[in-house]
Amino acid sequence: MNNEQIHILVVDDESPIVQQVTFFLSELGYRITGETDSVKALELIAGFDYDIVLTDLMMPKVSGMDVIKAVNQKGSDTQIIIFTGFATTDSAIDAIKYGVYWYIKKPYNLKELAEIIQRAAEKLLLRRENVALNQKIRKMFAYITTLYDITTILYQVEDFDAVMDMILDTLHEGLKISKAAIFVMDEEDTQYAIFKARGLSSGMIAECRFRIGENIDGQVIRADQAVSCTESDLSLTRLGRYELSADDPIERWMLIPIRYADKTHGFLGVFDFSEETFSREESARLLKIMATQVAPILEMSRCRSPKQISDNQIFENAANRLVSEKILAAQKNRSIVSFAFLRLQRNPEVTRVLNLKELRTIYQNTVTSELGPAADLVWQNFDSILITQPGENSIMLEFSCTQIKRTIEQRFQDARGNQAIRLQFAVSCYPIDGESATEIIAQLASKIFHENG
């Protein structure tokens, strides 16, 4: 503890006592203000929050109890110590009632006084540290709660660009991070490239790329673990194959993997840290929470793109996540949400040669045209698709699926009118057919199985 942090007011109508205590505590490093006029002492207290007030109890004009009451009326955390040569049980009880830290009888021992002052200072600093910690915990809890609320909204936004902008806005507003980027996999060269960024130069946004396993600033980029350099005497000179210029002054950085279903879909890149609200370590923990929350969004964005999921497990995870999110939103809004599963099946009895590219295009265009932008789609390859429609009853969704089935099957017929392609579908509705993702998905699977049978 640094005694210079503690400012003490000494109040006593006896000048020798004020001089002695002021000199003694000043020698110990405390900042001291001495006052023999208790009326002036009240003025000092009104204008300044002292850390410790050491006051005599029996004084003319204004008593020590008046000084104590004046301190308490301010609502500060000032520690009060009283000393007097006329201690009585009643005065002690009154002093304790007003939150006095200690009660010293005259004549006092300077060594004992120093120990009491030190304990009062330690109690005060500990209390302030606890208050600051509690405030930080409340801020962190509020930020995490906001983060979860925001990601719930993000799952319902169709525009992937807008979602990425909202993530960067959240970083800027919540963690005061002005330089950040979201890296996603570039399938053509299997490198992670910047998809969206804030506060970075155009050159860095266009050219900065890296692969898992590359060494950056002495750190190896890993698929399953955040890497960072938050303490460095030198600015970062290279990120991946990009040579940083004077337009990219970066001294501290962090890359957090965005993983879902054991696959790294991207990285959250942060290139400055403000300790205005949270420490770097606390910010790092919050960034990892954010990466965990947005990972399914990157997965679902891939599902909505022309590239489909080919891995069964990833498709099941993405479908389960989407159904869970839609049910949660419906619970909050006290509404319904309908789900459908569509699957193409080739008729082996028809010999027509299929053009798969043509089939894929017609199928996708028919689905999106019939359902409109309100529906969320998760594709597996190109032949199977999970559909969710919030606020829509299952009868309307079943009608739409029937229209899709009719269009597809009529389009792919042989010369005799036999369908080369059949379309199976099943429809379920929350909460009528189930109240959880597991129940809804089981319903869809069961209906598809019976139709196929």
Largest beta sheet: what is the strand line-up? 8-7-6-15-14-11
Q: Count every helix, treating DSSP H or I runs of 4 or more residues as helices.
A: 12
What overall form do the CA principal axes indicate? elongated
Query: Can you identify the CATH superfamily of the largest domain?
Result: Reverse transcriptase/Diguanylate cyclase domain
CATH C-level name of the largest domain: Alpha Beta
CATH architecture of the largest domain: 2-Layer Sandwich
Percentage of helical residues? 40-55%
Q: What is the structural class?
A: alpha+beta
Number of domains: 3
Uncertain runs with pLDDT below 50, 5 residues or more? 303-307
Radius of gyration: 35 Å
| Oligomeric category | single chain
Give a count of the beta strands, DSSP E runs of length 2 or more: 19
At the fold tier of CATH, the topology name of the largest domain is: Alpha-Beta Plaits
Kindly describe this structure.
With 453 residues, this protein is of the alpha+beta class. It folds into three domains: 3-127, Response regulator (Rossmann fold, 3-Layer(aba) Sandwich), CATH 3.40.50.2300; 155-291, GAF domain (Beta-Lactamase, 2-Layer Sandwich), CATH 3.30.450.40; 312-452, Alpha-Beta Plaits (2-Layer Sandwich). It contains twelve helices and 19 strands. The chain has helices spanning 15-27, 38-47, 64-73, 89-97, 110-154, 160-175, 202-207, 280-304, 312-333, 356-371, 394-411, 437-452, and strands at residues 7-11, 31-35, 52-56, 79-84, 102-105, 180-186, 191-198, 209-210, 215-216, 219-220, 227-229, 238-239, 242-243, 253-260, 263-270, 337-346, 376-380, 384-390, 421-430. The strands form five sheets. A six-stranded antiparallel beta sheet has the order 8-7-6-15-14-11. Helix 9 (312-333) crosses helix 12 (437-452) and helix 10 (356-371) runs antiparallel to helix 11. The longest helix has 45 residues, at 110-154. It is elongated, with a radius of gyration of 35 Å. Mean pLDDT is 79; it is low at 303-307.
